[in-house]
Each structure stands twice: as structure tokens, then as C-alpha cells.
UniProtKB/TrEMBL annotation:
Protein name: Glutamate metabotropic receptor 4
GO molecular function, a single term: G protein-coupled receptor activity
Gene giving rise to this polypeptide: GRM4
Gene3D superfamilies cross-referenced by the UniProt entry: 3.40.50.2300, GPCR, family 3, nine cysteines domain
Domain G-protein coupled receptors family 3 profile: 530-804
Highest taxon above the source species: Eukaryota
Source organism (scientific name): Lates calcarifer (Barramundi)
Principal location class: membrane
InterPro entries xrefs: ANF_lig-bd_rcpt, GPCR_3, GPCR_3_9-Cys_dom, GPCR_3_9-Cys_sf, GPCR_3_C, GPCR_3_CS, GPCR_3_mGluR4, GPCR_3_mtglu_rcpt
An annotated GO cellular component: plasma membrane
Transmembrane segments: 530-556, 568-587, 599-615, 694-715, 727-749, 769-791
Cellular compartments annotated: Cell membrane
Pfam families according to UniProt: 7tm_3 (PF00003), ANF_receptor (PF01094), NCD3G (PF07562)
Length: 844
């Protein structure tokens, strides 16, 4: 080995008996020596040169990036030395294999990139010097002869680089000279662009696969809100872009913060990044595509901010299973999930790092595979051009040093095969533990995972908690993973994750508003308090009515029964009976028959009652009006005429009902609006007849008209002689009935919006009808029954009045018509006298 400006290692061959550890130590000494500052103005190349028949170039980050204007910084023992020695190890194996490249010795020109793309570009110009023709026609030696120029060794292919930004920079130069390049670590997706980087290949998969694997890991953990951190440059930015693109394609994943670490971070830059990542405490997972130095400094800043155990790091292959980024800050890295292309440690007597405290670096296998891919199929490599060599490289298919196949696709990419690690701390023992692998799809053993604090419970990294059943998500604008939960209230149910819909009119939401169930159907039950009171009144009324009828039938020929007008009395009692009987129709379960009977009998009972009363009051009024003008009897006052008039009035009611049946046949319906309360749990469908409030008004309107007309006649006949006992009871009956129905109207129509509408209206209507019947029964017939049963002595005919008394009684009615004159005594005809005698000339 000789030092020339920097250093060069001239390695003709390596015998199997020579211990490579000695070579590694020597290499380490020379590299450190070369890294020492030189005198101002003195430039050098940190390189290793191995002479051979065919030379390969190599690019390795032996040193870290320098600070304060220096190109190179501290030595990188894993990422630099291990990978460098892996290439030397591969060259030794190939040179000692007489079958692979017989009679050909491989040489190498290995350069240090110092982890900086611009520095690597300057270094890589060494690879193309032999291909640049130098014009020496103007150069003469002192002797006058042409100069003797030593031509640099030709580099037929380059192994490297490590960082994607370095590979991109170098690839732009190498493609101009058609020098194939095989990288062992560069994974930026843009390097798959075969139109720009057509001479670039790699034995590691691109970050598009890695990004998909990381997305699958995040989804397997049920995280949906993460942050990303990328080192400035092609590797970091392209990796994060690929992750974001894959997350969008798969959906269900949102980015809280996307932070980029500058190439030359200023003081406090990492503290600022940690503060940004902490702005959304729900986003605990951080996706990292960063170089080793940035990872280390990021963890230091998180430790400084006292965020131990808060962040869950998901690192790319640049983190992998390296010790250097987490050295002295193991607690900050606990639980970190990292990815590495599937690999295996090289077990050989020349194992790299064998006696070192460091584990073998993760990309060692790929360095060796890259060398074999470059030289394995071409025994005449020195005589072929770069284009043909590239074709051979793209078509290789062999088993690599670790037993995995080495192949390339049309873009020069290796297939995606990853191992998934988690950094765990158990009883003060730390390790990167393999928890799964990814080959087109994820295979993850969650039971092997351990999180900060030694817990097995997967930490949460979601923007919003899942909504409860019966709630819909209302997403935050621009952040689909963040939402507010809104209740599906009222009659709404949760149709899907984002939608509440109204239940159908005959349905209501179930208990947790995830679906709809039928609304319970109710009707007025016989056992309901709303039905008991009307039924009790109706039963008592029917019993009383039947009692009166039986009494009248038994005493049908007595003066009191005769004087009450037997024919109209039985008609009136029939109407009263129907009024009471209507209560049972109103409470019975609605069907077509019941609804039809309701239409017929609800108004018929009152129409019969008021038609009979109207006929009576009209007859009295006409008799006394006639008495003012003459003593002759009015027309149509006979019992037969009275019945004809009464049934004519009743027929109007029946005719109206018949027309109603023709226009709108009766039916039972379920009214879901009647008890559609604000609280859907209280909603009920009401089984009822299709009689609207307007129809009810029309149905009862005719009866009300008869009642009002009868009341008018009652008022007009209020001054008849006391001995004519029918007028005043009828008057009191009508006055009381009017009061009952005046009270009914506001109660009935004032409850139209009440949840108890059906019960209140039915009860009010039935009680009002029964009370009207009770008033008529009590005031018109109970006094007569009382006299018949308890005072039979009063149930005798009175002596006939003299004609003078009759005329006097008739003329007393002049008070109804002050303008009427008195008729001369003695002119009364027997017709009027007989009429008066028959209809009530007795004392009750």
C-alpha cells in the first residue's frame, strides 16, 4: 500500500490464509490518516486502488458529511467501513474463484463520497478519465518528442452509491459515458425512471415498495393520523412522497405534519421540528425517511423536549437495524418499527466486523450481490461496451450470497422483499427484533410487538375517536381522517358512516339509531282510563233509558204518558239510546264495519233526539201563535203529522251519510302523525277510522243545526202558561245541551297537537254525546217517571177547561207577539179545545 496525496491501497490478491481483519484494521488506519486536515491548497482523493485486469468503481460513505466548510466529517464505522470491506470481500472471493472469471483479476477504484452528493460528483470524475481523449498535439517534450501520457485504468462499472441523492448525481455523469452502475442501497423512486437513469440498476427494491410496506404496517396497527419527516434530498423527499401517494391510493390515512430536514440544519432546527410534530398530540406515529445523522439528532431533540415514549417511530431502511442512530438514546427509540430489505448476515471466516462490538451492517449482503451482478456473467468484460454489459446485468438471475434470488426488472429494480424490525427493551436488554416481513403483502406478528413501557397494548395514533353507533361522521374540511361525531337524532337513523336518514313514516329508529323498527300500533283499549268513564256513563244511561221505556210501556195509557206525546217520546227515547250506544262504537277496534257504523250512528242518535224535540217545540209554538189569531187548530199537529215531520228531518241526516259513503267509502287507517312525538320512543301509530275533524264537523253539523233551531223555539215558547208543562223542560234541556257542546268544541279541537289527541277527543266526544242524552232523559222523562211511580194520585185526568179558560190561555200568549189582538170570547172551535185538552191541560 502506498500513500499518494491521500492514500491508495494496491491489492494484487488475497490468499485464503490471510486474515482480513488485519486488512480491515489497516484500511481503518489509512482512512483515518487520510481524513486528517492537509495543508492549505493541498487537495487529495480518499480512495482505495486495487490493480487488476478489469477495474470496478466503488462509492461508499466512509465519512459523514463535514461541517464548517469541510467536505468530510467523522468516520462512519457501520455504513462506511462495513460496506467498503464487503466489496473488498467480494472481490477476493471472485479473484479466488477459478471458474467464475478464469485468468482474469478484478481490480477496483473505491472512493469516499463523504455522504455528500456534490463531493461524490467531484470524486466520480475519476471513473471517466480513461474515456476522455486528451489532445496532446501541442505538447512537446524538451527533446522535441511527444509526451508519454499514462492512461488511467478504465472502470467498466460502478458499485454504488449509498445515498439516493449521491447515486442520482453520479448516474447523470456515468450515463454519458455508458458506464453501468449498480447500487446496493439507493432506493429513491425516481431512479426507476429508465429514460433518465438508463444505466442505473440496484439490488435493493425502490422506496415505492418500501412505502407500500410502511402504509400496510400503519393500517395493520389501525393508525390513520401520522406525521412524516424527510431529509432534504432525493431519498428522503421521494420516500415521503411515495408514502403519501400510496396512502392516498389506499385511503383512510391522513398526514398531520410533513416536515423536511434541511441539508445544512441550523442550530435549533431539530427542536423546531419536534415542536411541530407535537402540535397534534393525536398524531403519535412519525414516518421517517432520513439519513442516519438526521435520525440521531431528531431523537436527541425529542429527548430534550421530554417526549420519551410519546412518539412511535416508523423508520425506513436508512434506519433499519443500525445501532449508531440510537446510541445513548435507546429509550427514545423504544417501540420503533423499522424496515430493511430482506437480508442475512454473511457467515464466513472473513466475516466483516467479526470481532467488532457492532452487528453486521444491513446492506453488506447487497454490496456483495451488486459486485456479483456486475461481473458474474461476463468473462470477457474488458472487450465489451457498457451497453452490452448493461444488457447482461439486467438479465442476471442467480442466488445471492444470502440465498435470495438476484434479479432486475425492466427498470433495473430488485423485487420488494423486506424484513420488519422493532426496537425493544426487555430487562435492560435492547435488540432489533424481527416481527414480520413484507413480500407484496404484509405478514406481521403483532403478538411479538412491545411498546414503550413494556406494554403489549398498541398505542393510538388517530385524529378522531370512532363514532358511537347512531352517530355520523362530519369530516373536517381537507382532513378526511378527522371528524366530528353528530348524533342521528329524532327520527333519523345511521344509514352509513357519513349519513343520517329519516326513517319511513311508519317506522322509528331503534334504540341506538342504527336502523328503523315498526312504530307500535295503538288504539283505545276497553281497559284504558280514557274508555272506562265514557263506558260507565253509557251503561248507566242505557239502563236509565230502558227503565224509562219500560215504565212508559207499562203505563202507556195513563194521562201523563199520553200527555207527553207517546209517539214522539218513543222516538226521542230511541235517539237517546243510540247516543249512549255510540260510545261502544267509538271504543271498539276500528275496522270497515265499525267505521261504517260510526258514520251512521254518531250523528243519527242526536239527529233523532233533536228532530223529535224540534217537532215538539215547533208544534207548541204554532199552537200558541195560532191562538193569537183564531181559535182554529194549526195544520200538522196530529201525532201522525208529527212523526212524518220528525222522520223527514232524520232522513236528511241519513241522506248526507249515504252521499258520504258514495264519495268516500269508510275504512280503518293507521295514523302515524297523530302521536308522532318529538321523542321517537313515544311515537305510536293510531288505528282509527278515516273520519277527519272536518268530516266530524259535517257529520255533527246537522245535529247542531237541529239543536240550535230547537233552542230558538224553546226561547220563543218560554212564556207559555205554567199549566202547559212541556215547553219549559224542553227549554231547560236545550239550554243545558248548548252549554255542553260549547264546552266540547274548545276541548276537542284544542287538543289537535297533543300526543294524547286520540284519547282526549274520543273521550270528550263520547261524554258530550252521553251528557246531551242524559240531559234530555233527566229533564224530560225522569220527572214523569217519578210521578208515575211515586205519585200515582197525580196521574189522573184534569177536568175539562171551559171554553173561556181555553181562549184565555191562548190569548195569554200575546206576550210572544205584543201586536196580536184578543179574540172575542166564545168563538173558539172544538178543534182547538180538543187539541189543548189532549196535549197537556193538566198539572204535573
Amino acid at each position: 500500500m502506498t500513500l499518494r496525496g491521500g492514500f491508495e491501497r494496491v491489492w494484487i490478491g488475497c490468499h485464503r490464509g490471510v486474515c482480513c481483519w488485519v486488512l480491515l484494521q489497516a484500511c481503518y488506519f489509512l482512512i483515518v490518516l487520510a481524513a486528517k486536515p492537509k495543508m492549505p491548497g493541498h487537495t487529495h482523493l480518499n480512495s482505495i486502488r486495487i490493480d487488476g485486469d478489469i477495474s470496478l468503481g466503488g462509492l461508499f460513505p466512509v465519512h459523514a458529511r463535514g461541517n464548517d466548510g469541510k467536505a468530510c466529517g467523522e468516520l462512519k464505522k457501520e455504513k462506511g467501513i462495513h460496506r467498503l470491506e464487503a466489496m473488498l470481500f467480494a472481490l477476493d472471493r471472485i479473484n479466488n474463484d477459478n471458474e467464475l472469471l478464469p485468468n482474469i483479476t478484478l481490480g477496483a477504484r473505491i472512493l469516499d463520497t463523504c455522504s455528500r452528493d456534490t463531493h461524490a460528483l467531484e470524486q466520480s470524475l475519476t471513473f471517466v478519465q480513461a474515456l476522455i481523449e486528451k489532445d496532446s498535439t501541442d505538447v512537446k517534450c524538451l527533446s522535441g518528442g511527444p509526451p508519454i501520457i499514462t492512461k488511467p485504468e478504465r472502470v467498466v462499472g460502478v458499485i454504488g452509491a449509498s445515498a439516493s441523492s449521491v447515486s442520482i448525481m453520479v448516474a447523470n455523469i456515468l450515463r454519458l459515458f455508458k458506464i453501468p452502475q449498480v447500487s446496493y442501497a439507493s432506493t429513491a423512486p425516481e431512479l426507476s425512471d429508465n429514460t433518465r437513469y438508463d444505466f442505473f440498476s440496484r439490488v435493493v427494491p425502490p422506496d415505492t415498495y418500501q412505502a407500500q410496506a410502511m402504509v400496510d404496517i400503519v393500517k395493520a396497527m389501525r393508525w390513520n393520523y401520522v406525521s412524516t419527516v424527510a431529509s432534504e434530498g432525493n431519498y428522503g423527499e421521494s420516500g415521503v412522497d411515495a408514502f403519501i401517494q400510496k396512502s392516498r391510493e389506499d385511503g383512510g390515512l391522513c398526514i398531520s405534519q410533513s416536515v423536511k430536514i434541511p441539508r445544512e440544519p441550523r442550530t435549533g432546527e431539530f427542536d423546531k421540528i419536534i415542536r411541530r410534530l407535537s402540535e397534534n398530540p393525536n398524531a403519535r406515529v412519525v414516518i421517517i425517511f432520513a439519513n442516519e445523522d438526521d435520525i440521531r439528532r431528531l431523537l436527541q431533540a425529542a429527548k430534550k423536549a421530554n417526549q420519551t415514549g410519546h412518539f412511535i417511530w416508523v423508520g425506513s431502511d436508512s434506519w433499519g437495524s443500525k445501532i449508531a442512530p440510537i446510541l445513548n438514546q435507546e429509550e427514545m427509540a423504544e417501540g420503533a418499527v423499522t424496515i430493511l430489505p430482506k437480508r442475512q448476515s454473511i457467515k464466513d471466516h472473513e466475516r466483516i466486523g467479526k470481532d467488532s462490538s457492532y452487528e453486521q451492517e444491513g446492506k453488506v449482503q447487497f454490496v456483495i450481490d451488486a459486485v456479483y451482478a456486475m461481473v458474474g456473467l461476463c468473462s470477457k468484460m474488458d472487450t465489451i461496451n457498457g451497453t452490452l454489459l448493461l444488457k447482461y446485468i439486467r438479465n442476471v438471475n442467480f442466488t445471492g450470497i444470502a440465498g435470495t434470488p438476484v434479479v432486475f426488472n425492466v427498470n433495473g429494480d430488485a423485487p420488494g422483499r423486506y424484513e420488519i424490525y422493532q426496537y425493544q427493551i426487555t430487562n435492560s436488554t435492547t435488540e432489533y427484533k424481527i416481527i414480520g416481513h413484507w413480500t407484496d403483502q404484509l405478514h406481521l406478528d403483532i403478538n411479538q410487538m412491545q411498546w414503550p413501557g413494556g406494554t403489549q397494548e398498541v398505542p393510538s395514533s388517530i385524529c378522531s375517536q370512532p363514532c358511537r353507533p347512531g352517530q355520523r361522521k362530519k369530516t373536517v374540511k381537507g382532513i378526511p381522517c378527522c371528524w366530528h361525531c353528530e348524533n342521528c337524532d329524532g327520527y333519523q337513523y345511521q344509514a352509513d358512516t357519513y349519513t343520517c336518514k329519516m326513517c319511513r313514516f311508519d317506522l322509528r329508529p331503534n334504540e341506538n339509531h342504527t336502523g328503523c323498527v315498526p312504530i307500535p300500533i295503538v288504539k283505545l283499549e276497553w281497559s284504558s282510563p280514557w274508555a272506562v268513564i265514557p263506558v260507565l256513563i253509557a251503561v248507566l244511561g242505557i239502563m236509565a233509558t230502558l227503565f224509562v221505556v219500560v215504565t212508559f210501556v207499562r203505563y202507556n195509557d195513563t194521562p201523563i204518558v199520553k200527555a207527553s206525546g207517546r209517539e214522539l217520546s218513543y222516538v226521542l227515547l230511541t235517539g237517546i239510546f243510540l247516543c249512549y250506544a255510540t260510545t261502544f262504537l267509538m271504543i271498539s277496534t276500528p275496522d270497515v264495519v265499525i267505521c261504517s257504523l260510526r258514520r251512521i250512528f254518531l250523528g243519527l242518535g242526536m239527529s233523532i233526539s233533536y228532530a223529535a224535540l224540534l217537532t215538539k217545540t215547533n208544534r207548541i209554538y204554532r199552537i200558541f201563535e195560532q191562538g193569537k189569531m183564531s181559535v182554529s187548530a194549526p195544520r200538522f199537529i196530529s201525532p201522525a203529522s208529527q212523526l212524518v215531520i220528525t222522520f223527514s228531518l232524520i232522513s236528511v241526516q241519513l241522506l248526507g251519510v249515504c252521499i258520504w259513503f258514495g264519495v268516500d267509502p269508510s275504512q280503518a287507517i293507521i295514523d302515524y302523525e297523530d302521536q308522532r312525538t318529538a321523542n321517537p320512543d313515544m311515537a305510536r301509530g293510531v288505528l282509527k277510522c278515516d273520519i277527519s275533524d272536518l268530516s266530524l264537523i259535517c257529520l255533527l253539523g246537522y245535529s247542531m243545526l237541529l239543536m240550535v233551531t230547537c233552542t230558538v223555539y224553546a226561547i220563543k215558547t218560554r212564556g207559555v202558561p205554567e199549566t202547559f208543562n212541556e215547553a219549559k223542560p224542553i227549554g231547560f234541556t236545550m239550554y243545558t245541551t248548548c252549554i255542553v257542546w260549547l264546552a266540547f268544541i274548545p276541548i276537542f279541537f284544542g287538543t289537535s297537537q297533543s300526543a294524547e289527541k286520540m284519547y282526549i277527543q274520543t273521550t270528550t266526544l263520547t261524554i258530550s254525546v252521553s251528557l246531551s242524552a242524559s240531559v234530555s232523559l233527566g229533564m224530560l222523562y225522569m220527572p214523569k217517571v217519578y210521578v208515575v211511580l211515586f205519585h200515582p194520585e197525580q196521574n189522573v185526568p184534569k177536568r175539562k177547561r171551559s171554553l173561556k179558560a181555553v181562549v184565555t190561555a191562548a190569548t195569554m200568549s200575546n206576550k210572544f207577539n205584543p201586536k196580536g189582538g184578543l179574540r172575542p170570547n166564545g168563538e173558539a172551535k172544538s178543534e182547538l179545545c180538543e187539541s189543548l185538552e189532549t196535549q197537556g191541560w193538566y198539572h204535573a
